[in-house]
Design goal:
By secondary structure, the protein is of the alpha/beta class. 38% of the residues lie in helices and 12% in strands. The protein has 18 helices and 15 strands. The strands form 3 sheets. A 9-stranded mixed beta sheet has the order 12-11-10-9-8-7-13-14-15, covered by helices on one side. A 3-stranded antiparallel beta sheet has the order 5-1-6. It has a 3-stranded antiparallel beta sheet with strand order 2-3-4, with helices on one face. Strand 7, helix 6 and strand 8 form a beta-alpha-beta unit. Helix 13 packs across helix 18. The protein is globular. It starts with a strand and ends with a helix.
Length: 492
């Protein structure tokens, strides 16, 4: 009998317990498939050790039992082997372990992501298979065990500020895109992340593939068993990068595709030929079964053709995130907002979505119903509660796009000390929904999402509490549309 860890599982050992999770909390949403998320599991201290001797390569039950026996020397080998077999079989039933009578059978049973096993994405992107395991996030599990003490599970690292595109809506001024992260600094950050038991990393830029050591960075992330999210325009994708991406079963890619009309896409990126390069790279990732998500922000330039991206992606079994939220630049200049849809244009987009997707308004109503359960003492978002960002110069800031709110620098202070002791981090961590009186008293609040970086960037003073009426008006319209839909249901 041979056993191994399942390839899409993340495992961390804490002081008194072990924690296993699949990549569902960090990986991209898959198009329709018959595979359910595995879930999460807490292991006892001894259970954590039993699981830790497993790795990504199959090992015989005898070899595993011998390794365990080195710690439990006062227990006879036969008992260890029987206990290990029973323990691993239980974990296999839960989806965290695979076994086989031969090495090859064990490998073959560890099914990995493949576009060949997915059904085409449909317009109803909200539908999903029934989840048979408890629907609890990683953060919920850890908060329970650490009695509410915030645990850093997600880190966003900008490995370069340089970019080969000049997207008209970008929240980073192009003149600030000038430098790469030092290799020594990046590897030091990874070591700190490993010691802090981090689970997920996002690598971005600028354009991350402009960094000459991008592949080496990916390799080190794989060696540390991090779930990795790469944000890239893919125009520089090569075979070396593809090979390394394929090697990490916990890796996914997010790319922006603005239109299937090359001239419109290139107009947005301000880089001639970018559409062709990006589209071909997307197809290359599909060919190599690398999980992918397309981001298609809706703006003035593509408001009449963004739907073509959704249709094309659906045919290729790729999930698309489309949104009309564009935030101002982090230096509080708003020239990029010239591309943002007007309120009337947003209403037109929402009406079009509702007309094409029978479940669009129903999902909006469901989300609003969930929002009713939020209390005034709830966190505003995950910023400084489970996630934080680091720029190429070592500056640490709350989230992507909020670069001018520096909470520390990892060249001077450890990430752990910044996370636990920074006054600015503590200020944001202490904020609750009740600190937004305009929002908490608003009749439309269930149809809106509070966002501090959105507020701060658009505020001349960088105030994260300064709510912008633009988003209030969208919430008001969404509520109106939902109420009209409910009245129609009652009438019919």
């Amino acid at each position: 009998m041979f056993l191994k860890q399942k390839s899409n599982v993340i495992f961390r050992i804490y002081t008194s317990f072990g924690y296993i999770t699949d990549n569902r909390n960090f990986g991209y949403k898959k198009t329709k498939s018959n595979e359910n998320p595995i879930g999460d599991k807490i292991l006892s201290e001894s259970g954590a050790f039993f699981y830790s001797v497993l790795n990504r390569k199959p090992q015989s039950i005898d070899a595993l039992a011998k390794r365990i026996n080195k710690l439990f020397k006062d227990v006879d080998f036969k008992t260890i082997k029987n206990d290990a077999r029973e323990f691993y079989c239980m974990l296999e039933r839960d989806g965290f372990v695979v076994s086989g009578e031969t090495l090859q059978e064990c490998e073959d049973k560890d099914t990995r992501f493949s576009y060949k096993t997915l059904e085409p994405e449909t317009i109803n992107k909200k539908s999903s298979p029934t989840v048979i395991h408890p629907d609890k996030s990683t953060q919920d599990y850890l908060e329970e065990h650490f009695k509410g003490k915030p645990q850093l599970t997600n880190l966003h690292i900008e490995i370069t500020s340089k970019c080969n595109e000049r997207c008209v809506h970008c929240y980073i001024p192009h003149e600030d895109k000038t430098s790469n992260i030092e290799n020594e600094l990046f590897y030091d950050i990874l070591k700190q992340c490993k010691n802090m038991r981090l689970l997920h990393l996002t690598l971005s830029g600028g354009e991350p593939m402009l960094h000459k050591d991008f592949c080496d960075f990916l390799k080190k992330c794989r060696e540390y068993c991090f779930s990795v999210n790469v944000l890239s325009n893919l125009t520089l994708l090569d075979n070396k990068t593809i090979k390394e991406m394929k090697a990490n079963p916990l890796l996914g890619v997010q790319v922006s595709l603005y239109s299937m009309n090359p001239s419109i896409h290139d107009e947005i990126t301000q880089m001639k030929g970018s559409f062709k390069k990006t589209k071909n790279a997307i197809l290359k990732l599909i060919e190599n079964d690398i999980p992918l998500q397309i981001s298609c922000p809706i703006m003035k330039q593509n408001k009449n053709c963004y739907d073509d991206v959704i249709k094309w992606a659906g045919k290729n079994k790729i999930h698309v995130g489309d949104d009309y939220v564009i935030i101002a630049r982090y230096n509080h200049t708003t020239k990029n907002l010239n591309s943002r849809l007007s309120i009337d244009e947003v209403k037109e987009v929402i009406n079009n979505k509702a007309a094409k997707d029978a479940n669009f308004i129903e999902q909006m109503a469901t989300d609003a119903e969930k929002n009713k359960h939020y209390t005034p003492t709830d966190y505003v978002c995950s910023v400084c509660n489970s996630s934080i960002c680091i720029a190429d110069n070592g500056n640490v800031y709350p989230c992507a796009g909020w670069q001018n709110y520096v909470v520390g620098n990892v060249k001077k202070t450890s990430l752990k000390d910044i996370w636990e002791d920074s006054e600015k981090v503590q200020y944001l961590r202490d904020l609750r929904k009740k600190d937004f009186p305009k929002c908490i008293q608003c009749a439309d609040k269930d149809f809106c999402t509070m966002c501090m970086v959105r507020n701060a960037n658009e505020s001349p003073l960088g105030d994260p509490l300064a709510v912008n009426d633009y988003f209030c008006n969208i919430a008001k319209f969404n509520k109106k549309l939902t109420l009209e839909w409910k009245e129609q249901l009652i009438g019919s």
